[in-house]
Amino acid sequence: MVLLVGFLTTEASYLVCSAQFVRKSRNFGRNWLEINLVGNLAISTMLFSILQVLWQGVFLMWHVYCICFNVRTDEWINWKKYPEFQVVYSEPGESYTRVMFRNPYDKGILQNLKDFLALRG
């Protein structure tokens, strides 16, 4: 989690700095070819960083969601394999049963956040 926040911070800082660099480099009286090469390099790496920030932002939101509801990604994806995450409903008069997701470890958002922040090691 800390590593992901570090990546997001670094790449967002790079985006800001490279945008300022491109804006300022166009104001200097440089050779057109030199400005074009440097500008293209800065813009192409900015586009790469934008893509990185987008998927890492979604990834960070997913982690925060999992923390708030005290569920791991593996448990969320494979919940049908874990009996403790299943609630079986059978309607009277119906021949089939419904299996729904239930998280037995969820203690509420605030308590889940406290538990996560209190973890050591």
TrEMBL record:
TM ranges: 42-62
Keyword field: Membrane, Transmembrane, Transmembrane helix
Protein name: Protein S-acyltransferase
Protein's organism: Dipteronia sinensis
